[in-house]
């Protein structure tokens, strides 16, 4: 017998990765965090989240073997937070397709958490504003509010206080993710101001962004956490040098690492850099581009309903 089965209701959205154009650590706080000033940029490398109905509880599945699909997953934590805060009795099934490398300094977990907050706000018709979503997101991780906003932002406090800034001139980003695995908490714990050679000039970077001067932006990339992560994993320094030798305008480690990114003005240049790097290095090489113009909207973009 043939049944006309009604289509299951689903919601799918993408959750973008980020890079840090600048990252300065200003002070150690008493709450275990560090005061930072960083300029963050969304890129089109993205995970995909699909939501489906289920009678009760939270169930997750993912394409990455070994990535927990329980309370240890930030996406699961985000769903649990929404469910408990708004006393929601119905369940949710979350399918997470990861494209963003794990523990890479690209905010993959934070992007997923932001995607779940955005998705469930729509799924359960909660009507939360972006600011309200950010208040929830900040509980899950310092980078989650940025992932909710996306675009180009100055992040201060522990990273959760956001100021919109002039959008980065559109360009291509070559990512090189070496095998090394670093923990963000370990990197901050081992940060020593005395070991830093160059602090970012945040004001100068903001000026180049305002002038839409990509060469100026390239010249001002700086991240003080390199002093910790590269000391432990010198191959990251090697990758930075190779990135520039292969033609990138400039290179930098993103966040706490270990991913290195390089800037390229167009796709052809980016693909050429990526091809040369693949010959030199065992790192995972990905070509991405900047994502802008979404300020005021959620970076996690709903693509089907
Ligand atoms: C370094 C950055 C730069 O964008 O990104 P990633 O490398 O993780 O992508 C961020 O500051 C990471 O933000 P996020 O990954 O959300 O960190 P959280 O979960 O809030 O914190 C993880 C741990 O890092 C330390 N931490 C984090 C943020 C901060 N401003 N000061 C800190 O000292 C704390 O020890 C904290 O327990
Ligand atoms: N949805 C998720 N995606 C990736 N990692 C996650 C997720 N949920 C929890 N984690 C854990 O968070 C840690 C940091 O991962 P990730 O967010 O990818 O890196 P980073 O903070 O360097 O950008 C990893 O140890 C990983 O096991």
UniProtKB/TrEMBL annotation:
Record pathway: Isoprenoid biosynthesis; isopentenyl diphosphate biosynthesis via DXP pathway; isopentenyl diphosphate from 1-deoxy-D-xylulose 5-phosphate: step 3/6
Pfam families: GHMP_kinases_C (PF08544), GHMP_kinases_N (PF00288)
Documented EC number(s): 2.7.1.148
An example Gene Ontology biological process: isopentenyl diphosphate biosynthetic process, methylerythritol 4-phosphate pathway
GO MF, one annotated term: 4-(cytidine 5'-diphospho)-2-C-methyl-D-erythritol kinase activity
Physiological role: Catalyzes the phosphorylation of the position 2 hydroxy group of 4-diphosphocytidyl-2C-methyl-D-erythritol.
Protein name: 4-diphosphocytidyl-2-C-methyl-D-erythritol kinase
Biological source species: Dendrosporobacter quercicolus
Lineage: Bacteria, Bacillati, Bacillota, Negativicutes, Selenomonadales
Gene giving rise to this polypeptide: ispE
């Amino acid at each position: 017998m043939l049944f006309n089965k009604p289509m299951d209701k689903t919601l799918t959205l993408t959750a973008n990765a980020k890079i840090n154009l600048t990252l300065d650590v200003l002070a150690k706080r008493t709450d275990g965090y560090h005061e930072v000033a960083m300029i963050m940029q969304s890129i089109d490398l993205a995970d995909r989240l699909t939501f489906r109905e289920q009678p009760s509880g939270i169930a997750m599945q993912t394409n990455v073997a070994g990535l927990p699909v329980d309370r240890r997953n930030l996406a699961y934590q985000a769903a649990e937070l929404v469910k408990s805060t708004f006393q929601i009795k119905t369940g949710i099934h979350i399918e997470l397709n990861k494209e963003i490398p794990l523990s890479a300094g690209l905010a993959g977990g934070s992007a997923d958490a932001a995607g779940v907050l955005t998705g469930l706000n729509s799924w359960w018709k909660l009507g939360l504003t972006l600011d309200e979503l950010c208040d929830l997101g900040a509980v899950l991780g310092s980078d989650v509010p940025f992932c909710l906003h996306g675009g180009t932002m100055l992040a201060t406090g522990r990273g959760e206080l956001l100021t919109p800034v002039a959008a980065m001139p559109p360009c291509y980003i070559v990512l090189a993710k070496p095998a090394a695995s670093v923990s963000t908490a370990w990197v901050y714990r081992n940060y020593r101001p005395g070991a830093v050679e160059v602090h970012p000039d945040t004001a100068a970077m903001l000026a180049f962004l305002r002038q839409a001067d990509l060469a100026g932006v390239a010249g001002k990339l700086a991240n003080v956490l390199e002093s910790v992560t590269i000391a432990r994993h010198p191959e990251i320094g090697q990758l930075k040098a190779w990135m520039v030798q292969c033609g990138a305008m400039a290179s930098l480690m993103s966040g706490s690492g270990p991913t290195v990114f390089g800037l390229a003005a167009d796709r052809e240049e980016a693909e050429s850099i990526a091809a040369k790097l693949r010959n030199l290095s065992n790192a995972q090489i990905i070509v991405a581009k900047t994502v802008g113009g979404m300020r005021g909207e959620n970076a996690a973009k709903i693509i089907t309903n």
